[in-house]
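Posting here for the record, re: zinc ion.
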Amino acid sequence: MIDSHCHLFYEEIFNDLDNKLNFAYSMGVTNFLTVGTDNKHMRQNIDIANKYSNIVCSIGIHPTEYNCGYDIEEMRKLPAQHNKIVAIGEVGLDYHYIDLAPKDKQLLLFEEMLQLAKDTNLPVILHCRECFNDDLFKLIKKYTNNAVFHCFTDTLDNAKKVIDEGFYLSLTGIVTFKNSGELREVAKYVPDDRLLIETDSPYLAPIPHRGKSNEPGFVRHVAECICEQRKCTLKHLSDITDENFYRLFPKAEIMLERK
Ligand SMILES: [Zn+2]
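Prediction output follows.
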């Protein structure tokens, strides 16, 4: 099983990384993608991936971090220098936080990141919140067809659009929350070949750890909840989500040992 989206550089995890990884192994979670969010943590995130054979990483600027002082030319060079960088992300639009990051700034940043993905020929990890419309899909498709909507929490209708447009959809611990009925419908709906699972650690801990700091081992709880919805075994879910992960992130297939 793979945690396809975590942030191992945040203190809550990084200060205790080896213990967190050992716990994950005990839960059957063997490989990890640690996802970039800003300029400040970019090098640290790459260093973590370079240090562990079972971790890959991405680089990208989160929509609310448009002001973090990144250097796009430097970012353009990084994937050629570090084979462990397998994706651009997380990037996108977050219209829940327009007071933090105005729409026009977010859009400029997003297009710059999509162009970076195109230039580096890497798939994209999307953070899209309260921004679903036809323009969103048109914008993404201008640059790439290889992308995952990370931490999907939108409606079943929009999940169908994500799939119809040819993208992947990834679920977090939110699917375990009591009031997430529609999201569990999404968990039932997504075809076998388009689903990914993730923790988004240290955020969004699933039940039975809700409210605590999240960690990659807890992706097992996300998986078990989805298995209940899909009436499938953990082994099956783990197999199909691993397969999807390696299809979406071809560089990860080269860099990671399958377990
Ligand atoms: Zn994230």
